[in-house]
From TrEMBL:
Organism: Chryseobacterium carnipullorum
PROSITE patterns, per the entry: PROKAR_LIPOPROTEIN
Domain DUF5648: start-end pairs: 67-201
Pfam families xref list: DUF5648 (PF18885)
InterPro entries hit by this protein: DUF5648
Protein name in UniProt: DUF5648 domain-containing protein
Length: 341
């Protein structure tokens, strides 16, 4: 089963909105170290570190696949989400619903490797009730229920480290409530009726989230921009190289940027293989006779010129407006640019 997309856990670490385009990128030569200093430090703005034979880049996520509980004293309702932000809670009316973070229930089997059933979130647009369930068939024939998302699989109850989540319902407020502590409401009180064990969770543990090739980062401290290429995190020398080699032009009809930049407080939180800087002499070219496209990367340690397979041109967000037209580029020994993940 495919892994679930990580929920919006990287709250303070990453930003992937339309604001993170080139309008926010201001890389000046005097804001970073000199090229000689960078080359002495591995050509990437940081010391080159030993890497595995299989290059990869990753980030440690502290609380993946967590389920968060919220409460609104204004509405007297409980809500649940895979995001710790109240703004991500479903609602029927715009504006503030006065929900605050009340608890963390635990973590699902977000990787989907186990044999448990999928936990899904359902919202009733008529009553504003939210239900977490492993049995979506319970809504068959009922009005107003809409699926919000899948949260990950339930663990099996006899697995080490698991604990049950107890489900309650209060008819007066048309609100479900979930807790990992049955002593909180016992077999039912304060208008809540006990409905049984909903599913099983575990305590969240740090998770190594591998980062895809073609992902961009900007270090907020230095404004330097990096790209993950062939399983290595590589610094881009300056703004001119960034906008010439890679595509940040807005795309019609939605006028959305072609490429996003994830901002991080410190680039060192992105771990793994480091590669050489992509310098000012890097360029893209296309052989007019064959239509083959090439990435010239003179500072690269794996060869100066590489063939760009058609599928990878968009994955790496290369700028087709910067292709230099050439003829006679025909070398059977050239390597292809690769996608490692």
């Amino acid at each position: 089963m495919k892994k679930l997309l990580l929920p919006l856990i990287t709250l303070s670490l990453l930003s992937c909105s339309s604001e993170d385009t080139l309008e926010d990128v201001n890389i000046q030569n005097n804001e970073i170290q000199t090229k000689n200093d960078l080359l002495q430090r591995g050509g990437g703005g940081f010391v080159n570190t030993p890497t595995d034979p299989q290059n990869k880049v990753w980030q440690i996520i502290d609380y993946p696949w967590q389920i968060y509980g919220f409460y609104s004293s204004f509405l007297n309702k409980h809500m649940y989400s895979s995001s710790g932000h109240p703004s991500m809670i479903p609602k029927t009316q715009p504006g503030q619903s006065w929900y605050f973070l009340d608890r963390a229930l635990g973590a699902t089997d977000g990787e989907g490797n186990g044999n448990g059933s999928m936990i899904s979130s359902w919202f009733n647009t008529n009553t504003q009730d939210l239900v977490l369930t492993t049995n979506p068939n319970e809504f068959t024939g009922q009005n107003g229920w809409e699926k919000v998302n899948d949260l990950g699989k339930s663990f099996i109850g006899n697995e080490p480290g698991t604990f049950p989540i107890y489900r309650y319902f209060r008819n007066e407020t048309k609100s479900h409530f979930y807790t990992r502590d049955k002593n909180e409401l016992g077999d039912g009180k304060n208008g809540f009726v006990y409905e049984g064990i909903a599913f099983y969770l575990k305590e969240p543990a740090p998770y190594e989230y591998r980062i895809h090739d073609g992902t961009f980062y900007q270090d907020k401290k230095t404004n330097s921009v990096y790209v993950v290429m062939e399983g290595q995190l590589r610094m881009i020398e300056n703004t001119e190289v960034l906008t010439r080699v890679f595509d940040f032009r807005n795309k019609r009809p939605l006028n959305m940027p072609a490429t996003y930049i994830n901002k991080v407080d410190d680039i060192e939180i992105i771990q793994g293989s480091r590669g050489p800087m992509i310098q000012a002499n890097a360029r893209l070219s296309e052989d007019v006779n064959t239509g083959m496209r090439y990435f010239s990367d003179p500072n690269g340690t794996r060869g100066n010129l590489k063939i760009i397979p058609s599928m990878l041109f968009d994955i790496y967000h290369f700028n087709d407006g910067s292709l230099v037209r050439t003829t006679g580029t025909n070398n059977s020994r050239l390597q292809e640019l690769k996608k490692t993940y």
